[in-house]
Specification:
Blueprint lengths: L1 H24 L8 H13 L20 H10 L12 H6 L3 E2 L8 E2 L6 H12 L5
Antiparallel strand pairs: 1-2
This protein binds heme C (HEC).
The site of heme C has 21 residues, from helix 2 and helix 4.
């Protein structure tokens, strides 16, 4: 009886120690920024059409040489929804959602250019305040 209790206590103390040391080793994830994290992915995934003179330039353009210009462009085109990050048109349309062409007419489906891992990253960036 005594032995059992003693062993349980030891296990408990040991377990707590493990938990605390696990906490010590956990570093806070750094906040993603547009320039360092999103912009490079965006150039790769969206830049072939959303470039100056490209087929999708009227909706937003990615300046291949300038992250700041691109950031301003995204913000002025209202592609980010800060109150419902996963509903941002940047995410929904990028993943293959519907949009109305700038030439008018019926809504059409966009191609799926944003993969799930990128979508998760981009939503996390918007949720954290869409830092430049
Ligand atoms: C294969 C070409 C192509 C690629 C790559 C592409 N798009 Fe598009 N996108 C288009 C076209 C075409 C339009 C409509 C342009 C127009 O009507 O003027 C568009 C429009 C949009 C719009 C505007 C939606 C609206 O409601 O007006 C968003 C947002 C968008 N794309 C996001 C993205 C994102 C994010 C990526 C990359 C992950 C991406 N696109 C990659 C072709 C592309």
């Amino acid at each position: 009886m005594y032995l059992a209790t003693c062993a349980q206590r030891l296990l408990c103390v040991f377990g707590l120690g493990m938990m605390l040391s696990a906490c010590d080793n956990t570093t806070e994830p750094t906040t993603k920024t547009f320039t360092a994290d999103i912009y490079p992915q965006m150039k790769g995934a969206c830049g072939s059409c959303h470039n100056t003179g490209g087929v999708a330039a009227k909706k937003f353009t990615i300046d291949a040489a300038n992250a700041a210009t691109t950031y301003t462009n995204l913000m002025t085109n209202n592609l980010i929804n800060k109150t419902a990050p996963d509903q941002s048109s940047l995410i929904v349309v990028g993943k293959g959602g519907m949009y109305t062409p700038s030439a008018g007419g019926m809504a059409v489906a966009h191609t799926k250019n944003l993969n799930d891992a990128q979508a998760t990253d981009w939503v996390a960036w918007i949720t954290a305040g869409s830092m430049q």
